[in-house]
Amino acid sequence: MDVCAGIDIGGTNTAFGLVDAAGNVHFEGRLETATWAAVEDYVDALAGEVRAAVATGGVTLRGIGVGAPNANERDGTIAHAPNLPWKGAIPLAAMIAERFAGCPVRVANDANAAAVGELVYGGARGLRDFVMVTLGTGVGGGFVANGELVRGHDGLAGELGHVVVDWDGRPCGCGRRGCLETYASVPGFVETARALLAAGEEPSVLRDIEPLTGRDVTAAARAGDAIALATFERTGRVLGRALANVVALTGPERIFVFGGLAQAGELLLEPTQRHLDRNVLDVLAHETRLELSQLLDRNAGILGAAALAWRRLAAAD
User: Can you give the pTM of this predicted structure?
Assistant: First the structure.
């Protein structure tokens, strides 16, 4: 059986899997991204894991797709990704190709890969214009217009997480202040909860939790904790306002939300949709619906990265 490897590199973890052309995942694994200080050691470890999975499954590896922060599909590099441990420009596609001779490798921005996964295997099937928003260690955006990914002239378009929402706001790993990522990522979400706790003395179960995580805040919100609910309200306000600008610029039919923070479901979607509708142009109001990714219980990053590889193979045939 032929498979492609889909690799989703995040700031915390790297997920990888073997996917057939129909989107069936035959193996899925994970390793911690930041364990390796040297990118060469990381790629060696990742390649070893993929080879072991291929050998165990008795399958034929036809291609490799990779979704990674700050990845440039045009030259196969990742450069200056603030949430990854390796700095500078890294020729990731070439490094992986060296370890899999004769196997084509395609590297793309992680949010773009997730958008392709949604387009091919998820809720965006049949849509021509949509946006994928990934809310994890960072914030990413995958923009699809007229059925094609928007890559920009340099291959780096779609950096939604680094749209500035407050010029005097929180410091961002990119070197600027007030990027959306500092508020709508999981770490930014937790920071909002901590700020609300520090601002008053209102009782909250979150005061007794250390270290505090996004899952803790979500669980508390589901139990009715006022501080946790306020955290979702503030996060939804910032994200909804940013997405109102996205709607004005790109006119998507739908916006899909994926990633760790999306696991909160309506706790996040309801305030975000409300603030989007409140801030969008009147002529566009209520036209763009927010939805959870249909791949939320699977791994859109793995499926999207694998879909990139399968598409490259189809184009070459």
Answer: 0.87
